[in-house]
Amino acid sequence: MVIKTEGLTKWYGNKLGCRDICLSVSEGQVFGFLGQNGAGKSTLVKMLVGLIFPTSGRAEILGRPLGDREVKKRIGFLPETFRYQEWLTGYQLMKFHASLYKMPGSAGRERIEEVLQLVRLKGHEHYKIRTYSKGMQQRLGLAAALLPDPDLLILDEPTSAMDPLGRKEVRDLILKLKSAGKTIFLNSHLLSEVEVVCDHVALIKKGRIIAGGSIGELKAGKIEVEMIIGNYNDVINRSLAEKGYKPWRENERVMVTVDSRDKIPVIAEIVINNGGSLYRLTPLHNSLENLFLELMQEGGENDADHCRDDLQGSA
Length: 315
Ligand SMILES: Nc1ncnc2c1ncn2[C@@H]1O[C@H](COP(=O)(O)OP(=O)(O)OP(=O)(O)O)[C@@H](O)[C@H]1O
Ligand SMILES: [Mg+2]
Description:
Layout: E1 3-12, E2 15-25, E3 30-35, H1 41-49, E4 56-61, E5 64-65, H2 69-72, E6 75-78, H3 90-100, H4 105-118, H5 134-146, E7 152-156, H6 164-179, E8 183-188, H7 191-197, E9 200-205, E10 208-214, H8 215-220, E11 223-230, H9 234-242, E12 248-250, E13 253-258, H10 263-273, E14 277-285, H11 288-297
The protein binds adenosine-5'-triphosphate (ATP) and magnesium ion.
């Protein structure tokens, strides 16, 4: 396991940061940690990288307890509020970070070139950071996080300052790192981004995890079915409702939600047997965004004090 937390909890005085966080991230996963503003995402990653200390609970990273110095060398971290020494040039900042990671001169120089290429800052590195745009500064932070060629990359909202093209470049970079076997922990509220790059997610609300699993598993529970029905009438409507499918209409479309593929022909049968002309039936897989909104709107508070196995990122 690359990350394993058990009951990790942080109180800032009497203000809750996050509570009873139990999750596992295994090697090679891209794990998305999703939640609204103030949910506790940054609190968790700050504990993982040792910037703040947990109030209670425990965690292991790469098989060692939090704070292990050898493990820290194998972690790359992009913080959410990235502010770098603006009087330095990008290149000087990279050299400084390389020295923090104790990378020897020539290897350090080579790696700096590589990461500057990766984040597309090559050509800008000899300008002072104060002349960089926000997006460029975030790219520089990403370069610093990539510098040690980390086994675990922790990114706290890595594209918050980037334009759409920059976001796509970072998404592609994450996918490239994933195919090289790196493990990535990504805090985000950009659901479409998470959906594209992550294989596992956990949703945090008011400091507690309320759902988690592989994206496939999370979405498997719900399939929206879109139908175009001629002669749609009350009988069809009632028959669907009686069988537990609650239809709703959007212009000429009739929508129902089913919990498995097997239910799709059942719906078609109900429509046809009750005099409807079924012109079209299209199963639409629920987007992560719909799921997220549903879960955020539900009560969803988990009062259990113990770890739940179903929140594990691993299968
Ligand atoms: N240093 C602090 N002192 C007191 N409370 C804090 C501190 N840092 C965070 N909090 C509180 O902890 C809770 C979780 O904050 P956190 O920054 O972890 O959320 P987040 O999910 O990262 O939000 P965002 O999406 O806005 O970055 C919030 O209620 C926040 O006000
Ligand atoms: Mg945050």
